Amino acid sequence: MRRDPLLERALERLLSPRLGHAPSRWPETLYLHLRERAVASGQTEAEYVERVGQGSEAAPLAMLLDAATIGHTAAYRHPEQFERLRRAITGAGLAGRRPGPLRIWCAGCSTGEEAYSAAECAEAAGVDAAVLGTDVNPVAIAVARSGLLPQRSAVGAPLPAAWAGRVPEALRRRVRFEVASLTAAQPALGAGPFDVIFCRNVLIYFEREQVPRLLARLAAELVPGGYLILSPAEGILPLPPELGRGPAPGWLQLAEGDDAAAVESAPPSRRAPGAAAAESAPAQAPGVEEAARLLSAGRAADAEQVLSRLLNADPDHLEGWFLLGEALLARGERAQARAAFLRVLRCSTGGARGVDAEALRRAAARRAEALRDPR
């Protein structure tokens, strides 16, 4: 469907600075919302957007931001990461390094399930924790603060039984929610430094070239040795030098002191436990997590072999095609990488496992466009 260029420019002026990025295509929910509001106000859609931008009312802008963002989240999404977090914060782990509660930040928290999961995980481990959840969407933050969370059948597991009516008050007191953009001057609102930062299924919305700068901003909010947790599919994104890859897909770690440059560049004996094993392990059964680990270790050619076997067995594997595009791009095979990213757009989203399928497709579309031969 052909879009009105006046409307597209108005949306970019109003929303992109607040979101921190300009998507290649806005969600259909935004256009539906605009159509309804424009008809009600007797204006064109572009005129309505301009009026919202010039007005002083917060509610119309909040509704536009809500319609423009895709807030896929779930309680204990990627449960293996929460299990790893539990192990990392107990005993001689992060919780024992300094006095006071463990500090956790969930950036891009949407309606709060991730932040509440982090708080409950720490509570179950017997660790006192203070959790901050931030999101650019004020409507999602209002839902998070209320503790009245929506049931989501499409992503992850159902809400824990204790949360079904409302998140328990004792758990709600452990979590603070604020409206903030990841690209703001103070994305964590001065609440750091943090021991753990979750930023999962967020960076996939940004152009690949923006990612190292955003990761550096997140790293600046971490204590030395602190963890930055991305989604497994985001674990192969380019890193700034101060962050190194940890022992599992999506886990990054800030170096400690002068002698721990980046975990990624340290010799195997000095890396986080399990990192060397993940790098040197022989290929097992084809799997997207294995490919992500190989990519994290800089072994793009090995990852490509794993993904080729995976895609031969499952030609409609959305995450597999995306990771293959990243592997080919890492090897300098731009034309082949573009073909892999375009193939993502033809995959069904129904079979996606543990990732935001629509976000992954939008990221693939941006990668493919950036790799298009200008001739």
Tell me what you see in this structure.
The protein has 375 residues and is of the alpha/beta class. It has 3 domains: 5-68, no CATH class; 79-274, Vaccinia Virus protein VP39 (Rossmann fold, 3-Layer(aba) Sandwich); 281-370, Serine Threonine Protein Phosphatase 5, Tetratricopeptide repeat. The protein is built from 15 helices and 7 strands. It has helices at 5-19, 28-41, 45-54, 58-68, 79-89, 113-124, 138-146, 169-172, 211-219, 275-280, 288-296, 300-313, 318-330, 334-344, 357-370, and strands at 102-107, 129-135, 175-179, 194-198, 222-229, 243-245, 251-254. It has a 7-stranded mixed sheet, with helices on both faces. Helix 5 (79-89) packs across helix 6 (113-124). The radius of gyration is 21 Å and the shape is globular.
Topology:
Elements: H1 5-19, H2 28-41, H3 45-54, H4 58-68, H5 79-89, E1 102-107, H6 113-124, E2 129-135, H7 138-146, H8 169-172, E3 175-179, E4 194-198, H9 211-219, E5 222-229, E6 243-245, E7 251-254, H10 275-280, H11 288-296, H12 300-313, H13 318-330, H14 334-344, H15 357-370
Parallel strand pairs: 1-2, 1-4, 2-3, 4-5
Antiparallel strand pairs: 5-7, 6-7
Helix pairs in contact: 1-3, 2-3, 2-4, 5-6, 11-12, 11-13, 12-13, 13-14, 13-15, 14-15
Radius of gyration: 21 Å
What is the arithmetic mean of pLDDT?
80
Q: Summarize the helix and strand pattern as letters.
A: HHHHHEHEHHEEHEEEHHHHHH
Strand content: 5-15%
Q: What is the CATH domain class of the largest domain?
A: Alpha Beta
Corresponding CATH architecture of the largest domain: 3-Layer(aba) Sandwich
Spatial arrangement of strands, main beta sheet: 3-2-1-4-5-7-6
- The total beta strand count reads 7
CATH level-four homologous superfamily name of the largest domain: Vaccinia Virus protein VP39
Whole-number tally of structural domains: 3
Main sheet properties? 7 strands, mixed
Point out poorly predicted stretches: 258-286
**Amino- and carboxy-terminal Cα gap:** 25 Å
Measured as a percent range, the helix fraction is: 40-55%
Shape: globular
CATH topology of the largest domain: Rossmann fold
The number of helical elements comes to 15
Assign the structural class, choosing from mainly alpha, mainly beta, alpha/beta, alpha+beta, or little secondary structure. alpha/beta
